[in-house]
Write a structure and sequence with these properties.
heterodimer; A: 260 residues; alpha+beta; Ubiquitin-like (UB roll); Fumarate Reductase Iron-sulfur Protein, Chain B, domain 2; 2 domains; 5-stranded mixed sheet; two-stranded antiparallel sheet; 8 helices; 33% helix; B: 294 residues; mainly alpha; 3 helical TM bundles of succinate and fumarate reductases; elongated; binds protoporphyrin IX containing FE; binds iron/sulfur cluster; binds FE2/S2 (inorganic) cluster
Chain lengths: 260, 294
Amino acid sequence: MGGGHGETISVTLRVWRQDGPDEPGRFDVHHQTISTDASFLEMLDLLNEELNAAGEEPVAFESDCREGICGTCGVMINGRAHGPQKATATCQLHMREFSDGDEIVIEPFRAAGFPVVRDLAVDRSPLDRIIEAGGYISVGTGAASDANLTPVPKVAADQAFDAAACIGCGACVAACPNSAAQLFTSAKIGHLGLLPQGQAERWSRTETMVETMEEYFGSCTNHGECSEACPKEISLDFIAFMNRDYIKAKVRNRALTGQH
Amino acid sequence: MAQTTEQRYRVAPVRSRGREWPFPLNLYQSAVGRKWVMALTGMGLIGFVLIHMVGNLHVYEGPARMYEYAESLRTIGGGLVPEGGVLWLMRLGLLTMFVVHLHSAITLSRMSGNSSEKAGRISGAKKYEGGRDHIAATFASRTMRWTGPIIALFVLFHLADLTWGWWLGGDFVPGDPYHNVAESLGYLPVAIIYVVANIALAWHIFHGAWSMFQSLGVNNPRYNHLRRTLATTLAGLILVGNLSFPILAQAGLIDEDGRMCPVGEVEGNACLAEQGHGAAATGHGTDSTGSVSP
Ligand code: HEM
Ligand code: SF4
Ligand code: FES
């Protein structure tokens, strides 16, 4: 942990630059002097202002809410997804996590399923493909039903809520040595599969989401790096839940039980 | 969701799913299902390793009891099945588990490999310039793809050594495991191979016995902390038991200094059989029957 409040530190940035998906990449080196109160992304904003002023291309990176809830941001900082602070998205990271004189290597999230669009921006749309495959519940619309019509046990509600905290940032894939997307997919499956509203499609959802996931991502070896990197600290227990449901879904004769 | 802007192009799947096989073969088609099979076969292999280790402790009871133990493996099933029948069935099951475990390990590793390559400037395993801390992954979990092949090679070595007697040559006596163990493990280079391989095996089980619960989806927050304890205990037991053989052989505890029976397939084994059965019949330990190794 670096400087305290209101200090100014100098850091050396090694930033990944890549002009397009099929272009070769390189590291550019920049020196920044910055307040420890600045956020990490503000530091990159300031860098980009300087680059703009000098007539150079700014560094492409993604962000939106900048308060850790949308899942748009995310870069590798010194080899760690979302940087050194636990349970924190890149946008919530502050420069006080660094010390004067530090070298900071900034790279995109890497996986074959996350091709680089430009610089630090990667295309995480395969996660959307997984959601499209079943990460929803189908409800017949009509008059709104009474609130609390469907009782949900407290523990189930709590667990489902823990899973629902996933913001879809993809840090789990980036941190995983296997580029597996188990934590993301299991969070989505667990979130719906634990609630009464999600039961009708529970087995078909698990099957299609897992199989779509496997078209893009690697095979889990239970390292646990994902959960460590996750800004929402999603638990590995959801992965076990997903594995169990996947086998059950396959074994169950869904045609017979009318759950296809 | 992650992507709020309009998609310029679709990221192509890294692999396509192909036609689904009939149940239950389709389980093996998916990585999650294959990992489930890998966990089951791994569990079976752990069971074998454990029983194998405990059974081999008979070596500390001397040549006659070791002979009797080996003989009893051949006669499992009593008179109902041909002699050695059940043993061969078990061998077949073991071989199947081994081959399936290996096949799943290799194919899933390859799948992870090609999910990580093409990921920018680095091909093959995913690496970041900024280094990787491996915050959660243990040394054991990261070396499964090393300890696994070490075990596989060792198994071949071990079979050639004590089952087929390839290099003991004339010193190899079929049916007299005590003699063969003493002969082979008494040779330092061989003992070293056994030590190294069994450390790799324990290492493999240290991660494997934990990991298999995740893969099987056996998960209950009330008992989850016990998984680590169980994996450590299993790995520890197997390590201590299996390492004792080469180490004590080197220390001279498994030798034939006080052996009463001659060494030889016909005469020697007949003598061992008589001693062993005598011991079992009278209910006495080995000492009373004259085989005096510890
Ligand atoms: C007696 C021998 C063996 C035993 C007792 C054993 C046991 C296990 C167990 C219990 C697992 C956990 C499965 C899971 O994660 O769900 C496992 C995983 C694995 N095994 Fe084995 N195994 C043996 C031999 C081998 C061999 C010969 C190879 C290799 C070539 C191998 C390679 C692997 C790999 C790569 C994994 C996956 C690692 C991971 O999930 O991180 N194993 N093994
Ligand atoms: S599980 Fe965590 S790391 Fe993975 S996408 Fe969701 S919030 Fe991000
Ligand atoms: S910008 Fe929304 S989570 Fe970081």
